[in-house]
């Protein structure tokens, strides 16, 4: 999978993709992430990318031309399955959307700043709008990093033990069950006997029951 990201703050995206699982995905050749500085696509003085909004009001708006220039330059080289704008008024990201996007070949992500991007970009180029939650970030970069992480770990071959993504919270609309590791007992706090029983059928049933209970208690809306 190839993911291109257009941003005015490329520095904000350096760290998330150079560690852990996303780094491994790229080393294995399963994921390519390219960031593009929007300012490089501005033909204006001082590489301007934002301007006052028509109608007045506080806050700048990201201009049409540099963004269109960037999108069309990239589209002339790569055929994108989706052009995604990260925005608090988009569809809220969930595991189902992450699963669907992990099956795509090429994605183009647009990060907004200030008051957002000129609406005509959304109308004419954007195919999907995603929010990572009901709160406002300073820009779309951290949201893009969250989205790429959620998608990247689902690409087949990225996780060592592929079943581990299948047992994640939300994969079957259930939260994940509790997990334990050594020691078996610490300060009198014991690991549930069933997990030490070696009976895999019993363990599977216990995990499912625990997942169900946890979901009922914490996120009944998922059931
Ligand atoms: N940009 C600013 N806030 C955001 C959010 N909650 N989700 C996605 N993009 C954003």
Automatic annotation (TrEMBL):
Residues 1-223 form the tRNA methyltransferase TRMD/TRM10-type domain. S-adenosyl-L-methionine binds at residues 112, 132-137. Its EC number is 2.1.1.228. Keywords: Cytoplasm, Methyltransferase, S-adenosyl-L-methionine, Transferase, tRNA processing. It comes from the Bacteria. It catalyses: guanosine(37) in tRNA + S-adenosyl-L-methionine = N(1)-methylguanosine(37) in tRNA + S-adenosyl-L-homocysteine + H(+). Pfam families: tRNA_m1G_MT. It is found in: Cytoplasm. GO terms for molecular function: tRNA (guanine(37)-N1)-methyltransferase activity. Its main location: cytoplasm. GO terms for biological process: methylation. Coiled coil: none annotated. Belongs to the RNA methyltransferase TrmD family. Specifically methylates guanosine-37 in various tRNAs. PANTHER family: TRNA (GUANINE-N(1)-)-METHYLTRANSFERASE (PTHR46417). This is tRNA (guanine-N(1)-)-methyltransferase. It comes from Chitinophaga rhizophila. The lineage of its organism: Bacteria, Pseudomonadati, Bacteroidota, Chitinophagia, Chitinophagales. The gene is trmD.
């Amino acid at each position: 999978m190839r993911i291109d990201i257009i941003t005015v703050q490329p520095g904000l995206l350096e760290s998330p993709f150079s560690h852990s699982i996303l780094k491994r995905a790229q080393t294995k050749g399963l994921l390519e992430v390219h960031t593009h500085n929007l300012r490089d696509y501005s033909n204006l003085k001082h590489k301007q990318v934002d301007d006052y909004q028509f109608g007045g009001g506080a806050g700048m708006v990201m201009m049409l031309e540099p963004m269109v220039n960037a999108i069309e330059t990239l589209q002339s080289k790569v055929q994108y399955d989706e052009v995604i704008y990260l925005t608090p008024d988009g569809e809220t990201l969930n595991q189902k959307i992450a699963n669907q996007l992990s099956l795509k070949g090429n994605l183009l992500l647009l990060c907004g700043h200030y008051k957002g991007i000129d609406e005509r970009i959304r109308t004419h180029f954007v195919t999907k709008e995603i929010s990572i939650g009901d709160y406002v970030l300073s820009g779309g970069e951290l949201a893009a990093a969250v989205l790429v992480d959620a998608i990247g770990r689902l690409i087949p071959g990225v996780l060592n033990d592929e079943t581990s993504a299948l047992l994640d919270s939300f994969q079957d609309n259930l939260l994940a069950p509790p997990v334990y590791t050594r020691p078996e007992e610490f300060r009198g706090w014991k690991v549930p006997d069933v997990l030490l029983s070696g009976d895999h059928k019993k363990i599977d049933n216990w995990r499912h029951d625990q997942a169900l209970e946890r979901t009922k208690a914490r996120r009944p809306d998922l059931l």
